[in-house]
Known about the structure:
37% of the residues lie in helices and 6% in strands. It is mostly helical. The chain is globular. It starts with 15 loop residues before the first strand and ends in a 7-residue tail after the last helix. The model has no long low-confidence stretch (mean pLDDT 90). This is DUF1289 domain-containing protein.
Amino acid sequence: MSTAPVPSPCTGVCRIDPRTALCAGCARSLDEIAAWSRLSDEAKRAVWAELPKRTAASHPPSAQA
Length: 65
C-alpha cells in the first residue's frame, strides 16, 4: 500500500452548485472541502471513491432527439 499523501481533488473551479450543494469543479461538499486537510488518508480515499458517482449524477446524459 502506498504511503504517498492523498492529493486533493480540487480542480481550481470553485463554485458551489445550488442544486446539488457540491462544488462544480471537484464534486465535494463544503464540509469535505473545509475538512480536507484534517481528514485521514482513509477518509480522503472514501471521498475520492464517491466523486465519479456524484459527477455522473450531476451531469446526466442528455436525451437523444
